[in-house]
Amino acid sequence: MKQTGGRKPPLVADRRYGAAPPAPAKPKPAAKPKAARARRPARRLPWPLRLVAGLFRLVWRALWGIGWRVTAMGAIVVGLATLYFYAQLPPLEALIDARTRGSVTLLDRDGKVFAWRGETFGGTITTETVSPALRNAIVATEDKRFYRHFGISPRGILSAVRINLAEGRGPLEGNGGSTITQQVAKLICLGVPYDPKVWKTEADYEADCRQSSLMRKIKEVPFSFAMEAKYGKDSILTLYLNRAYLGAGARGFEAASQRYFGKSANEVTPAEAAMLAGLLKAPTRYAPTASLERAQGRAAVVLGLMHDQGYLTDSQFKDALAGPARLSKAAEARAGGYFADWVMDSGPAFLTQDTTEDVIIRTTLDQSIQKRAEEALADVFETKVKAGSKAQAAIVVMSADGAVRAMVGGRDNVVSGAFNRATQAIRQTGSTFKPFVYAAALDMGYTMNSLIDDAPVTLYVKGSGEWTPKNYEPEFRGMMTLTDALAHSINTATVRLSQAVGLEAVRKVAADFGLQSELAQGPAIVLGASGATLLDMTGAYAGILNGGSSVHPYGLVELRIQSDDAALMGQEGGMGERVISESAARQLTYMMTQVIERGTGRRARLDGHEVAGKTGTTSDYRDAWFIGFTADYVVGVWMGNDDNKPLTGVTGGGLPAEIWHEVMARVEADLPPTPLPMIRPEELPPPAWQGQTYEAGGYGAQEPYPGQLAPYPGQAQAPAPGQGGESLVDILTNILGRRN
């Protein structure tokens, strides 16, 4: 076929052979041999960079090789330690209450709790029974990822380290970033039980367990893993609820809730739950009994966390902030701290201070009277004592049988452990001792109408020479009744009376009424040279009120183990044997009413109530007393300085009498007036003197033989000279004085 135009003719179908064959493929270029490729020059990095890259690869390979091996070994060690701790962990029940000391719960006269001592455990609570608000408050405050980790929180630890370093502390000082599981591990001391051979006290043991160190943090990791595996989340939280210390001796949230709010932890409101959870940060600082305002401020922070994490709705959050938690009446009053310490000392140590059991003690305390006594003391010091004064005071309120109803051991209203000036301070009694001189005379047959001379007197004291007592006022009044002598607290008349009845008789009456500590031996005993506690003096005056029988002051009524119904010990105190006749006691009561009506104790007058009492001021004004009673209660008041320095212008008829009045005005406010049991002077024959009759207060009468007293009507004769062990010569010598 002829071609034209220089182009190939198109392929046409050949009807004889079918379709035309495809066009031949374009040939591929031949591949270059490998040797040729190797000879192609490569793009190379500068040698310094190649050196750095090589070193990096070398270091990385070394680190990787070492790292995965170390990590693997660490994981194996942690795993083995976890298995070890897992095997060592005891059953959960054995860890709920692991206290080595028990607690003492003190009840008042109405059976209401007013104080606790030791470590109180309120009973087991669980995550199922506790108030949901409290459970949520704890998680929100202490460990918001509690239900999402395996025992430790690396994020929390790193955050705590950052905060500590930013605040200038060491990485492990301050915030620890511990989870609740780790905190429980600390509470149970990583499984190490308390051993008194290793730690002197349980406090030392707990302080050691709470120390943060690198080694302890490392141990916490496998221990926490083991706890998570052994117990689970709810059981760990149950341990936390029961083991955490929450201030004021409360161990666990049940004990704290009972102590602060008077209710179970199963019943607390969100506001109360927030306050309890806030204690975990610093139990002593945020305890509501230490500062309610500070505790409420901390609770507001916890409420904010609960709201932010969705545990409280907007309305619940606002309601909780508007109505913050408040203490129960008993916790708010904090009444009876001194009284509680005294009762604890009155029982056997193995059932009180050193008890390993939970003990219940029923007492004589009246919380209402206690609170009123505390308020009265605070009011007088605030309004009538100059600011900055370091003077102290103490108060005892007692029933006539010796049952102590209130006790204030100092100006500071403490919870426990302070020096109790009502029971521990032995101070000179001053003229409050004089009623026992007159009691001895009345019991021998003298009457309130008997006459005594207020005139100078000098006695010879063996070993010290002549002693001339002086009165508070310089002038002498001459002849007067015993009633007037006591009402005006005449020293010379009292000394003459003591010489007539005998010092041994006076000493015996005082001792039988309960004043047995440091009774002086010389004649100065009758003017209050002996020392005594306020509790003993108040108890002695209770003997006068009850008609002349001794009393042993008591506060403990019954002691029993919490789990038992039978009491281990009962009341050890109350009224004892008769000391003076009832007639003598009733006459003395009237004589002591005149101290208030027209004598040294006028500031103690109580409108609408009959009051008897006696003032007392020691030499150099170091101690000032007022002890008195109504038909309902005996109240003793003491004032002085702890360092025994003189008071400034304070006598027993001054501030102590005013404190007494403020206490009794509050105590008697709700009680109907009851007359005192006493014999009045008109019920007795008039005073007689060697056949002559004298009117009470007739100081101008003819002077009788010095020291001679008329006999009690009906007696054959007056008490013979020398009663009490002295001879007639000694009596006359002491009365008339001895010249060298």
Structural description of this entry:
By secondary structure, the chain is an alpha+beta fold. The chain is 39% helix and 12% strand. It is built from 25 helices and 22 strands. The strands form eight sheets. The chain has a five-stranded mixed sheet, covered by helices on one side. Strands 7-6-20-19-18 form a five-stranded antiparallel sheet, with helices on both faces. Strand 15 (556-561) and strand 16 form a beta hairpin. Helix 6 crosses helix 9 and helix 17 (367-384) packs antiparallel against helix 24 (655-667). The longest helix has 42 residues, at 47-88. It is elongated and about 165 Å long. Residues 1-6, 11-18 and 689-740 have low confidence and may be disordered.
The shape, in one word, is: elongated
Number of helices: 25
Low-confidence stretches: 1-6, 11-18, 689-740
The total beta strand count reads 22
The amount of helix comes to: 25-40%
Largest sheet: 5 strands, mixed
Report, as a whole number of angstroms, the end-to-end distance.
186 Å
Give the averaged pLDDT, no decimals: 83
Task: Tell me the fraction of residues in β-strands, as a range.
Answer: 5-15%
Helix-and-strand structural type: alpha+beta
In which order are the strands of the major sheet placed?
A: 2-1-5-15-16
Radius of gyration: 44 Å
